[in-house]
Write a structure and sequence with these properties.
single chain; 201 residues; alpha/beta; seven-stranded mixed beta sheet; 9 helices; globular
């Protein structure tokens, strides 16, 4: 019995913070978990920049409303969900993810939440649990599931390594070089094929 665990941003949808950096004209916000392995450091830095520019949740949600899933992502996800259970494991926030889940056909997602003031200012963030992706994969394994995992960033490596099969998807050259033990794919067809092979094993 398998559960396939997928990262969200960079795998199924564009990077939200990169889209917002472009929309807001603040290039520093393009920094993501591909660049900064320490998520707490990254988020505190982002919240500081938002405060500095007087930007809050509404402005980010306005940008998210314009984002569509990556080409082929919904079709890939639909086919994958027809052959195995799928959970999206993301370090994003429910306040960001909901409009994107609607466009993807409401798949299951486990993510985090933001603490937002009445005026819309993002004050802090609350992680669902520490090392959310790895912890979730281990929890699924503890109740009798094998896991298959795929993602593109530093924060996906734990769940990829801990799974029965793990794949990098559209990741950076540096991550591919540093983790040659994980097959790396660029297309949904390749990733779907690799997952299907594992399901047969």
């Amino acid at each position: 019995m398998y559960v396939t665990c997928l990262d969200l941003e960079g795998v199924l949808v564009p990077e939200i913070w990169i889209a917002f950096a472009e929309a807001s004209g603040i290039p520093e916000l393009k920094r993501t978990t591909r660049d900064e392995p320490d998520y707490d450091k990254l988020m505190k830095w982002r919240i500081g920049i938002l405060k500095e520019h007087g930007l809050g949740l509404k402005e980010i949600q306005d940008t998210i409303a314009t984002i569509d899933p990556l080409p082929g992502a919904k079709e890939f996800l639909d086919e994958l969900r027809s052959i195995t259970q799928v959970i999206i494991l993301s370090d994003t926030f429910t306040q960001f993810a909901t409009p994107l889940m609607k466009k993807l056909g409401w798949p299951t997602i486990f993510c985090n939440s933001l603490e937002v003031a009445d005026n819309g200012e993002i004050m802090n963030y609350k992680m669902r649990c520490e090392k959310g992706k790895l912890t979730t994969v281990k929890a699924l394994q503890s109740i009798g599931f094998e896991t298959i995992a795929s993602g593109d960033s530093f924060n996906d490596l734990g769940m990829i390594e801990a799974s029965k099969a793990g794949f990098l998807f559209r990741t950076t050259d540096q991550i591919k070089k540093d983790y040659p033990q994980f097959p790396a794919f660029e297309t949904y067809d390749e990733l779907l094929g690799a997952i299907k092979e594992q399901l047969k094993a």
